[in-house]
Please model this.
Amino acid sequence: MKSVLITFDQAFYERIISLLDRLNCRGFTYLDKVQGRGSKKGEPHFGTHAWPGMNSAIITVVDESRVNALLEALRKLDQQSEQLGLRAFVWNIEQSI
Model:
């Protein structure tokens, strides 16, 4: 099993949920308002007057066989609106209950 952390501009929410449904990635945890800035480019998302945007994050645990399809779909979504910002990170899941 793999954990995938997806951080994204809030504008992507519906599309990411639809993507998870389509790829049969049922379980996830949604974090509504997270702040941050990208390490390469893009504007900060701090929820302030100067930087009004906000990010969200989803953590999902999926079978390893689904990870590549999920990352590829997220990559395509990011390429459609690169200025918004979308990142995904994958970790091994050692144990779960």
Notes: The radius of gyration is 14 Å. The first strand starts at residue 2 and ends at 9. Helices lie at 13-22, 64-80. The mean pLDDT is 90.
